[in-house]
Amino acid sequence: MNISVTANGKAYRFTLLDNPTAKDFYARLPLRLTLKDYANTEKIAMLEPKLTKAQAPKGTSAKRGDITYYAPWGNLALFYRDFGYADGLIPLGTLSNETSKEMSKAMSDEFVELLSGKDLEVVFDKQP
């Protein structure tokens, strides 16, 4: 499942995982959310109703460019810095690496820079 995350007029492509939580998120698209900074590591937004936790791992770690769901709070998280293991953190997907390594790194750096600023309005949408 591929999605786009559009912020400040630029779209970034993400690939979602094949798990029930990611499928539940995908089914809700398109979504317009305001992402707020959390711990200088991630941007978060609350989701209502909460996503399913069916077949979810107990927890996971996150890398920059990952989309996750933090089940205890019910929030979506886009990481712009690596983060260690957290109970209740469910992986949803990651920034796509469909281009060359150089382009992928540049896009990842650009996206991380965009996320590390102030609150950010973002549109999540399905891609073919």
TrEMBL record:
<dbReference type="InterPro" id="IPR029000">
    <property type="entry name" value="Cyclophilin-like_dom_sf"/>
</dbReference>
<feature type="domain" description="Cyclophilin-like">
    <location>
        <begin position="5"/>
        <end position="107"/>
    </location>
</feature>
<dbReference type="InterPro" id="IPR041183">
    <property type="entry name" value="Cyclophilin-like"/>
</dbReference>
<dbReference type="Pfam" id="PF18050">
    <property type="entry name" value="Cyclophil_like2"/>
</dbReference>
<protein>
    <submittedName>
        <fullName>Cyclophilin-like fold protein</fullName>
    </submittedName>
</protein>
